[in-house]
Amino acid sequence: MRRATAALVEEYWQAQERIGAQVAAQALAQWSRVNPHSLEESGAAWLTRMLALVRRERRRSRDQAAAFYRLYRALETGHTVPPLSGEYVGEATTLGELREGWADQADSIRAPQPDDGEEIRLDGFDWPEEPEESHDRAAVASLVSQGPAKVRQHLGPADTDEARGRLDDGGFLQELEDAVDTAGRSSAGAADREVLRGGRDLIDRASKQDRRVVGWARVTDSNPCAFCAMLASRGAIYTSQVMAAGGGRRKPKGSPDGRVRANRRPSVAREDLTRYHNGCHCQTVPIYSRNDFMTPQARDYDRQWQEVTRGMTGAEARRAWRRHIESSRN
Q: Is the pTM of this model over 0.85?
């Protein structure tokens, strides 16, 4: 991977992470207004405020993703696509203009580069529309299940005549406070993920219709889970799937006695790259060349996988990998 491309990919997940973290902080502040003793009313008001926040920041994630995509594609192929706004900008732009657009969206300071004046041709391209109603439904389901529903589950046992007196019990009130705090953190994580759905979905849909794309790769944040780290260690997953089982490398041949070599990494499907958990700030980026696509961090995870799972296969290797990653996470 070229140094400039690797740096841009790093900037991108960090910029998206900042959006998600800011939303999570705002979600926690909003959750402080939820009263478990009037959960229906205060929960409904919270959901209304949260949905407005998610919609606004989801658009910001989407706009930022488009600016990244345009610059990233230019660096990788020498061609880019029109702005997400649909504004006509002619048949060509420059690397400098694309870098300026990215810096504006990422809220970063841009240093001039020697190749800023390089001309970049625009390919014909129609950005996919955002499925707003689908995204809204997903956001509501996620926020409710991780927030009010969790508190309601805790209140359920106290909602009988026999248990109702527990509302005057100090121990039960402390349990309730703990449950509310847990639900607040869970719902903040859900808000984080739902906001980043805007950028992730745009890149996923755009890359599927981009004729220059030949595959995809997972790029991790600074503290990935075992699943994301495993995906990153695989490198690229190609559209043809011919080389996918080897993460961009050919499938290992069996040993002379016909047994498959141990230490082989689990196969990865394209759909695996679209899976994210709450609090995850990893990203999936398109690949424009069959040259080996590995970020420095992915190469390190590849090395770790080989060491940690040496002599293992299947579920045994996955368990060893999970223990290794979980022991090293912050």
A: yes
